[in-house]
Amino acid sequence: MKKVLRVLIVEDSEDDTLLLLRQLNKGGYQTEHLRIDNRRTLKKTLLHKTWNVIITDHNMPGFDSNAVLGIIKNINLDIPVIIVSGSIGEDVAVDAMRAGAHDYIMKDNLTRLVPAIERELREAAIRRSQRAAEAAIEHLAFHDGLTGLVNRSEFERRLERAVARVKKGKTVDVLLYLDLDQFKVVNDTCGHSAGDQLLKQLSALLHARIRGRDTLARLGGDEFCVLLENCSLKQAKIIADDLRLLVNEFRFVWSNRFFSIGVSIGIVTIDKSSMSPDELLSAADLACYAAKDQGRNCIQIYKNEDAGMRRRRKEMDWANRIDIALENNHFLLYQQLIIPLNGEDSSHYEYLLRLKDKRRIVLPGTFIAAAERYQKMSAIDRWVIDTSFAYLSNMKSSSSNEKHFISINLSGQSLSDNSLFDFVQTLLSKYKLIPKSICFEITETAAIANFRTAIDFVNRIKELGCLIALDDFGCGLSSFSYLKTLDIDFLKIDGSFIRNIEKNPIDRAIVESINNIGHIAGFKTVAEYVETQKISKTLKEIGIDYAQGYAIQKPQPLAGEKVANEKKVSTV
After folding, report:
1. Are 9 and 36 within 8 A, CB to CB?
2. pLDDT > 70: what percent of the chain?
3. N or C: which end of the chain has fewer CB within 10 A?
4. What mean pLDDT is predicted for residues 182-201?
5. Which residues pair with 468 in a beta bridge?
6. DSSP letter string over 68-80?
């Protein structure tokens, strides 16, 4: 089968045109061709039809190859041009090549025509491929690879231009921050392929709904932004609610399963008094999270004077500082002594987290709320475990006290991490530690909130040989019944009952009750926040096994931690 060649022939002689077509046919081409012989027809033809190659005579009445090359250059077309002429001087041929001709062939030597065309077609294909690759690379630099929407970096550039434009003019723009509410459900139950398909479908729906002059971008994950240009806040609220309803009514189908997806939207006005682009994005993110706090699938307008917004801004700032602390090893550990009140058992230590912030030591009460909200606790807990194990291993190598053990706190997020047990087991082996030298503390509220996973973790970690303490017991709506289910070693009584135990008979009765039930269940009891020797004496009379607090020892940095002359700050 012959190859189809779309060839435009610029020639005033029909006989010469037939010779060219016969040569092409002989070379294996079936031609779709057109012969023209004037400037006007050439322009019209080039603009309305695509050609593989142009073959032009050099000399025609009122028209020559230089004119042909000039027109092609002005239109900016990449089409191989081959000059076929009966007479052309060498100087003229060289000038034609410089002007853009790809080859020139004498009419009495047409055997060169087909090889020349095939060469130029190959080179033209290579140029097209290179342009396509360059266009693809350029597109990826400014667009999200999954959805095809504008990416974060390009959106930030457009937002920066919008801020500058608004400050110079009288218009107002609006920024929308969108976060899908049930995306994780799809990802967790159906896998990332389903999640990717969901993002593609929703992106197409959202893009079709926004105005032509507006910008929809995917910032990452399931977070999107919309830049509404020349838009009032009232109109932006209407658009935002339209997008919210669009997502709310959308039904995603995967493997015969149907999913409903909601979206929370934060709104920030961009006017002459606006913040910087980074601050605008941060404010819109804050408003979006406030919408989630209202029950999700809501819209929230950013208000700088709102107390909740200010609190959330602090949490976002701390989330960033936590990432920096993890990356640069700005966390450090303190230890606090826990002593036996009956004199039979040995003392041990609880390792406590601190953060080095410039010349200050920050207590965890300042940043834990942010760590929990922004899912940083698992990473923090793993740093604590690794650092504690390494320190304990080094300490045991220089000590003969094999009875010594340490307590490490675990968050509820870590309890929900199915890979935590393997992480602990790997580090125990790495640092050659005896499992009984480690006691993991989990809070009562975390255990109740993650009861099934807590039971599973406790059972597996106990089989490994580690110890378990239930911390802050009594601070919530405690139920003694679940103590029969949890295989723990220590029951730590919340400090709120300990501080006033001498003056408040109800607190003393609660502590006595917890202590009695704990002993019947086979647990050792530990009293926290023992701040005076009188409290310690009262606890000993009640029969509490261990005491911990400032009356015993204030938290001290582990040996080797450089914290001299640093100011300790915290609200907790």
Report:
1. yes
2. 93
3. N
4. 89
5. 440
6. HHHHHHHHT----
Positive or negative CA dihedral for 88, 90, 95, 100? Answer: positive
The pair of three-digit structure tokens given for residue 449, joined into one six-digit string: 């909130």
Q: Which residues contact 320 (CB under 8 A, 6 or more apart)?
A: none
Structure tokens given for 478 = 């405690």
According to DSSP, the β-strands at 467-473 and 490-493 are parallel
CATH architecture observed for domain 334-346+377-569 = Alpha-Beta Barrel (3.20)
Sign of the C-alpha dihedral computed for residues 343, 347, 352 and 356 taken in this order:
positive
Residues 6+ apart with CB under 8 A from 13: 57
Structure tokens at 524: 């050792």
Sequence letter at residue 375: Q
Answer whether residue 211 shows pLDDT above 50.
yes
CATH class of 3-140: alpha beta
**Which stretch, 47-51, 112-116, 243-247, has highest mean pLDDT?**
243-247
Please report which helix (H) or strand (E) contains residue 262, including its range. none
Q: Does position 85 have pLDDT exceeding 90, yes or no?
A: no
Q: What is the CA radius of gyration of the chain?
A: 38
Residues near 516 by Cβ (< 8 Å), separated by ≥ 6?
A: none
Q: What's residue 228's pLDDT?
A: 96
User: CATH fold of 152-304, please?
Assistant: Alpha-Beta Plaits (3.30.70)
Is the predicted pLDDT of residue 327 greater than 90, yes or no?
Answer: yes
The sign of the CA dihedral 448, 454, 456, 459 is negative
Q: Please, which residues bridge with residue 216 across strands?
A: 226
Could you tell me what percent of the chain has a pLDDT over 90?
A: 53
Task: Give yes or no for a contact between 316 and 282, defined as CB atoms under 8 angstroms apart.
Answer: yes
More confident site: 346 or 543: 543
DSSP 61-123: TTEEHHHHHHHHHHHT----EEEEES---HHHHHHHHHHT--EEEEGGGGGGHHHHHHHHHHH
Question: Model-level pTM greater than 0.85?
Answer: no
- Residue 72's nearest CA partner among 24, 10, 4, 6 is 10
Quick: pLDDT tens for 51-69. 999 998 887 877 888 888 8
CATH 3.30.70.270 positions along the chain are: 152-304
